[in-house]
Design brief:
By secondary structure, this protein is of the alpha/beta class. The protein has 11 helices and 13 strands. Strands 1, 2, 3, 4, 9, 10, 11, 12 and 13 form a 9-stranded parallel beta sheet that branches. A two-stranded antiparallel sheet has the order 5-6. Strands 7-8 form a two-stranded antiparallel ribbon. The longest helix has 19 residues, at 143-161. It is globular, with a radius of gyration of 21 Å.
Amino acid sequence: MTSPALHLAVEIDGDGAHPAAWRRAAHSPDQLLTPRRVAQVAAIAENAGFTLVTLEDGVLPPGTAPDPVGRIGAVERAAFVAASTSTLGIAPVVPVTYAEPFHVASQLASLDHISAGRAGWVVTEEERPEAARAWGRPLIADAAARAQESRDGVEVARALWDSWEDDAVIRSVATSRYLDRERLHYIDFTGATYDVKGPAIVPRPPQGQLVVLGPPDRVPAAQLDVALVGGRDLASLATTAAAAGTPRVFAEVEVALDTPDATAAERVADLERHTPWPDRGRLRHVGSAQQLSALLAELSRHVDGVRLHPLVLDEDLPVLSRLVLPALSERRPLARPLAGTSLRSALGLERPAHRFAAAAVAGTQEDAR
């Protein structure tokens, strides 16, 4: 029996997973916030065969002083990547702790239209108190309350993506009709902190529902397409993955690889002189490309995919492209997205039925009885 193909994703925000990664970057600091930079990184990932790239984000700048930091919004960068790629899935990280879910849903639906169905959404939370001040919102300090905000945000977004039926748009020049209002629906959501009436201001996304990724301990499994699971060792990660209860499970793995100029350990030590590499509860590989290929092959027994967080993008991504992915493909099937397919198709996920249309059909059938 052929083993299921393993999907690989890579986080491409900034210069890498280490807060001081910029010190080893191959580009000048002024290039970090340019469209050319993000396009170059995305092109390497697409050509290497990655299924998906993710783009970290938040209302506050990444990292802390004294390291210089900055970023452009993840959704804006994702839209640019969508226009410059053809097969790569693109999932911005968008917290909904303080953001308006209506606007988040509209942005992400627009991204799915721009990318022709290659968009995803990584759901996270804003934990820092400064984020509340930046949004002008009361602080949500309680972890349970933040989790509730995430659950409500995802529920609202998914309902809004279904508030337009697939054939709601008419565009009839002869009759001067743009849409069929009978195929637009109110979602009538009432939550603990806000209400949303709907419908959306953007037609239903090409995928019907974007691929939603997130940690299963923060977002219920029923709301996720892909669980992002951590664990400092293989055993704990495998246990968490087995309990995820989602259609797909991706492991979170931080990587520092040997390069022609320095070993992985030497590179980590060089950056550690400036600031520590934070422990985020993820499996971490520091070593050779061959060892990482073996680790990924082992992980494939427990998960459907792996999201890699390279120490320094300019140093680790070329090694991943030239050595890791080719070596891994010799050990087991490696999923490579095809042109013209959606991210849902690439991940083997069905396009979901429209909830309101399906309910109407069910009601009609019941009346016929």
